[in-house]
Design goal:
Four Helix Bundle (Hemerythrin (Met), subunit A), about 725 residues, alpha+beta, five-stranded mixed sheet, about 15% strand, 15 strands, globular, Creatine Kinase, Chain A, domain 2, eight-stranded antiparallel sheet, Ubiquitin-like (UB roll), binds adenosine-5'-diphosphate, 23 helices, binds magnesium ion
């Protein structure tokens, strides 16, 4: 019988190029078509209700119950007119993916015999869904006997429709909280962190004389990387299907040395896939913008235009779902994992972040006047202070078993957090720091904050540093350490909270100086000098990959947590928790629960990999290796019969026998490694306490898994290609 992999390979090779279906459309006509947007709400809601809702969206105030009823009814009418049959609260539990539970709009009329259906969707249903929370991680906050969690619409993210073959479902972006009021999701703390940063940023703006802005929002643009491979290959690999990464597979013979894929011509099937994805994004009001090939073969990137953080994150969660679902249609399998292929560049999510006031001003934009620039420098100082003081918090926002393959593993970006500012800005900061020491005059002169002569920063740096985990790119910071499959929420929760804390500190310094009779200019001068000086060690413009940087970072006292387990242990440090607690983002109980869940997630992810390494090794790879061994054994016997023990090479038995023995040794090694992994797995499982299990998972299971893989990959290179069952890197990636 022919090996399935070979059959698939032939099928792909012989595939006739069928022309893809063409369907042209105008983005502006479909944009937001599936969203119950502000525009539609304005049309459909009574004026006063709409005005109050708009205020709720701007200020995050709670929605009045009477209004909720009216809004729900308008939503329902719109949804049903657009062929919706069901609605669902859509939320982001700590599993890392989104969750939903669908309910029909229709209920039988109270007179059961009349055969009629009534539709029903009240304000109560909009703000309070009640999914059974017992199957979502709560880190012990809620025991199953009180397994109730509530979901409530977050009005800052509009409801939308998703289509299936029989109709549509109305999706209600929601927060998810426990019966006792604790957050069980990632949206609640994100909203709270935005409030925190808004409050502190406004404090600074007021000092600069701005009396009109009434809110500041984090703006986020998320670049998403992903891999596409032929679905027929993926279906032959349980590791790709279930874990999103190959647990076995020898490095392909062609590497990515030439980087010939990067920004290369996009092949037609991929381009059609991308266009389809974008159309669906447009319909959902997601402003898709760029698409291109990435560095690794079969790797691609997509980025929308930035939006308020909450919306950007909801949209990114949806985008990941669209990418996965649409791939099927084009015969692809989409891999969002951080490291689907060992030895090939991994995937990340670049989280571009800035702060914008309610009047549309980007607070991280240098601006044109000395005053604007002084304010910009204060916010810049805030960022340096935030990243320097809360680097553990930020590192914690990037944990995950998948991301451990990138951070701290000789791949971009390094696990050490530092800020790239570029030469120009770094020298401005240097002169501000030095001025204080050398020259007293400057204090009198607003114009001399080293700023009046500050040229407009080029929006596109020529010396953009791709190795930095946190880079200033003209008018925003790009946090590059987020994993490609992860939610961007933790990163923005951490950024907003750290920034809120830093700005709070800076505001206090300025306020105190001014209370002591200093002018704003003097206060700004001395505060900037002090803050820049204290936090200059977080600035690093060099090569983040080098060994030298690790040593230098150690001298500067910057933490370097190479893996999830080592940094997660610090989640419960009071210095880490306090900043979140004091800024009203998460309570101690919520934080401890989260630490527990993140440990469990890590253990769960790796244990699935362990089980698959074992089952694929034992039931797929070993049998094929043994078949080949058997064949070689027969040959060796035959050779001995024909030629005697005489060797072609001196001293040894015939070469067939030599080959047989070598092969047998490798297979035995594989067999033993699998047994060892099995034993360690059982031992790890029996440990009590998440920390002990997580540590054993990292220190014993991962090395054992790597050993299994290493020998299997050697076998892949020598076992008869016709017998090898798993699609190879060569085939999948090129
Ligand atoms: P790169 O050159 O790194 O590939 P781009 O310059 O194309 O990236 O922008 C990357 C992302 O940054 C996009 O999503 C873009 O909308 C977003 N972005 C641009 N300006 C801002 C800003 N002020 N705040 C947040 N995100 C922004
Ligand atoms: Mg980028």
């Amino acid at each position: 019988m022919e090996n399935v992999r070979i059959a698939v390979k032939k099928e792909i090779a012989n595939q006739k190029l069928t022309s893809l279906h063409h369907e042209f459309y105008s983005p502006s006509q479909v944009y937001g078509k599936n969203v119950f947007s502000l525009k539609i709400m304005r049309e459909r809601l009574p004026k006063q209700v709409f005005n109050r809702l708009e205020n709720v969206i701007k200020t995050n105030a709670p929605l009045a119950e009477g209004d909720a009823d009216i809004i729900a009814s308008a939503m329902k009418d719109w949804a049903i007119e657009n062929h919706a049959t069901h609605y669902t609260h859509w939320f982001q539990p700590m599993t890392g993916v989104t969750a939903e539970k669908h309910d029909a709009f229709f209920v039988p009329s109270s007179n059961h015999n009349d055969g009629n259906l009534l539709n029903e969707f009240s304000g109560k249903m909009l703000v309070k869904g009640e999914p059974d929370a017992s199957s979502f991680p709560s880190g012990g906050i809620r025991s199953t006997f009180e397994a109730r969690g509530y979901t409530a619409w977050d009005p800052t993210s509009p409801v939308f429709l998703l289509e299936n073959s029989h109709g549509k479902t109305l999706y209600v972006p929601s927060v998810f909280i426990s019966y006792t009021g604790e957050s069980l999701d990632r949206k609640t703390p994100l909203l709270r962190s935005n409030e925190a940063v808004s409050k502190q940023a406004l404090r600074i703006l007021r000092l600069f004389g701005n009396t009109t802005a009434n809110n500041v929002t984090a703006m986020v643009g998320i670049e998403q990387e992903y891999f596409l491979i032929d679905k027929r290959y993926a279906l032959l690999r349980d590791d790709l299907k279930l874990c999103g990464r190959s647990l076995y597979g020898a490095m392909s013979d062609k590497g990515q040395e030439l980087e010939d894929h990067y920004f290369g011509t996009i092949n037609e099937r991929v381009l059609s896939f991308m266009a389809d994805v974008e159309k669906q994004m447009f319909e959902l009001g997601i402003p898709a913008k760029t698409r291109h090939n990435e560095v690794a073969p079969a790797q691609f990137e997509l980025a929308p235009v930035f939006e308020p953080a909450n919306l950007a994150i909801d949209h990114n969660m949806l985008t990941m779902q669209i990418l996965r679902n649409t791939a099927e249609k084009y015969g692809f399998f989409c891999l969002l994992h951080e490291k689907p292929f060992a030895g090939i560049n991994g995937s990340g999510k670049h989280n571009n972040w800035s702060l914008c006031d309610s009047e549309g001003n980007n607070l991280l934009d240098p601006g044109n006047t000395p005053m604007d620039n002084a304010q910009f420098l204060v916010f810049l100082a805030g960022v340096l202070k935030a990243v320097h003081e809360h680097s553990i918090l930020l590192r914690l926002a990037t944990v995950g078993a998948g991301n451990d393959h990138r951070l701290g593993a000789n791949e971009a970006p390094p696990a050490i957090l530092s800020v790239f500012l570029g030469a120009q800005l770094t020298s401005v900061i240097g002169s501000i720091i030095n001025d204080t020491e050398e020259n007293e005059d400057w204090k009198q002169d607003m114009i001399k904050i080293g700023i009046s002569s500050l040229p407009p920063f080029p929006k596109d740096f020529s010396d953009r540093n791709r190795t930095s985990p946190f880079a200033f790119t003209g008018n925003k910071f790009e946090f590059r350490a987020v994993g490609s499959s992860a939610s961007s929420a933790p990163a923005n929760i951490a950024l907003n909270t750290a920034m809120a804390n830093a700005l709070g500190g800076i505001a206090l310094m300025l306020e105190t100086a001014m209370a002591n009779g200093k002018t704003l200019a003097q206060a700004v001068h001395e505060t900037l000098a002090a803050v820049f000086k204290a936090h200059f060690p977080i600035v690093f413009n060099g090569n983040g990959y080098g060994k030298e940087w690790q040593e230098e970072a150690k001298r500067r006292g910057l933490p370097d947590f190479k893996d999830t387990v080592s940094v997660l242990a610090h989640y419960s440090d009071s210095s880490v928790m306090n900043v979140l607690i004091q800024n009203g983002v998460l309570s101690e109980r919520e934080l401890l629960a989260r630490q527990d869940i993140l440990f469990e997630n890590y253990i769960r992810d790796i244990h699935v990999e362990v089980k698959l390494t074992l089952s694929m090794g034992r039931s797929i790879l070993l049998p094929s290796c043994l078949q080949w061994l058997n064949k070689v054994g027969e040959l060796a016997e035959k050779a001995e019969e024909l030629c005697g023990k005489q060797s072609v090479t001196q001293g040894a038995a015939n070469f067939e026998m030599h080959y047989y023995q070598q092969l047998r040794e490798l297979i035995a090694e594989f067999y033993n490694n699998l047994n060892e992994l099995d034993e360690e797995h059982i031992k790890t499982d029996s440990l009590s306490g998440v920390f002990a299990r997580a540590e054993a998972t990292r220190d014993r299971l991962i090395p054992c898994m790597n050993k299994c893989r290493a020998v299997a990959d050697k076998l892949e290179k020598i076992v008869d290609d016709n017998l090898w069952p798993l699609p190879k890197y060569n085939e999948m990636l090129w």
